[in-house]
Amino acid sequence: MDRAADEPLPLRAVSVSPARHRNEGVERRRELRRRKRLSLLARCWRLLALLAASTGLGWLLLRHGWVLRDADQVQVSGAWGFSRDQIIQAAGLRFPVPLLQLNPDELRQRLSGSLPVEQIQLQRHMLPPQLNINLRQRQAVARAQRRKASGLENGFVDRTGAWITREQQAKARSSGTPSLMVMGWQQRYAPTIKQLLLQLPKQANVQRLDFRRNGELWLISDRIGPVRLGPLDGQLQRRLLVLGHLAETWGGKAPTPDTQALDLSNPEHPELVLRPTKAKKPAPSGN
């Protein structure tokens, strides 16, 4: 009996049902899905919080940060003939104004329409809030007159032959009124005016350019008098060279009363046109 007590008990096999294995796998998968949903929800909340903070910060910057509050935040360069207040008024700026609400194209259009300026450059700086305006002033080099439906209009032209209104010129600080006068100005004559301003001989001392309705160009010279340059064709430069040569050889003599004009329409054969002489009345006979 002692030997029987010392013998080990026999082992019994315990079986685990397949249903229990399936239940444990389902629970693990549910737990993984739940954790994934919680992680995704947390990331979404963080993203929403970041977007809300960015939106609020952007609104604060637009509302209180990137705003021009006074004229001191507008820097002007290049336009020596205008004050900063004139340029701000011409641009139509009203303070306070958000920088991002400024339309550069509209500002350029207002400035070019109100002031004799060109090559307008605008730069917006966010930190610190500032607007830089760089202008190139159009300087009047001649007085001008043009014909409109309402009548004659007086103004000025710049070095390119472009028109400057009297209102625009009145806002500029200029050194004086130009002596040269351009009559019959039209937009299509601007390239010719630009050429004349560059190539007119100084010794001729031209005081007036006259674009006539028949398409011819005349000018008035203090040394020579009226000069007919003729049509605006490819010989204009040659005519100006002949005019300069004749002005040098004129001898400084003023035009005689009998001189009507110098005709340079054919630059190879200049002609001095004299005034027609009046026929003398026959003396009364003594009979």
Describe it:
With 287 residues, the chain is α/β, with parallel strands linked by helices. The protein folds into three domains: 23-65; 67-137, Ubiquitin-like (UB roll), CATH 3.10.20; 142-274, Rossmann fold, CATH 3.40.50. It has seven helices and 14 strands. The strands form three sheets. It has a nine-stranded mixed sheet. The protein has a three-stranded mixed sheet with strand order 2-5-4, with helices on one face. A two-stranded antiparallel ribbon has the order 1-3. Strand 13 (259-263) and strand 14 (271-274) form a beta hairpin.
In short:
With 287 residues, the chain is of the alpha/beta class.
Strand pairing plus helix content: what structural class?
Answer: alpha/beta
- Please state the second-level CATH architecture of the largest domain: 3-Layer(aba) Sandwich
Instruction: Please give the share of residues in helix.
Output: 25-40%
Overall geometry? elongated
Give the uncertain stretches in residue-range form: none
What portion of residues belong to β-strands?
25-35%
Give the biggest sheet: 9 strands, mixed
Mean pLDDT over all positions: 85
How are the secondary structure elements laid out?
Blueprint (H helix, E strand, L loop, with lengths): L1 H5 L11 H48 L1 E2 L5 E4 L6 H8 L5 E2 L5 H11 L2 E9 L4 E8 L4 E7 L2 E7 L5 E3 H5 L10 E3 L6 H10 L6 E6 L4 E6 L3 E7 L4 H14 L9 E5 L7 E4 L13
Parallel strand pairs: 2-5, 6-9, 9-10, 12-13
Antiparallel strand pairs: 1-3, 4-5, 6-7, 7-8, 10-11, 11-12, 13-14
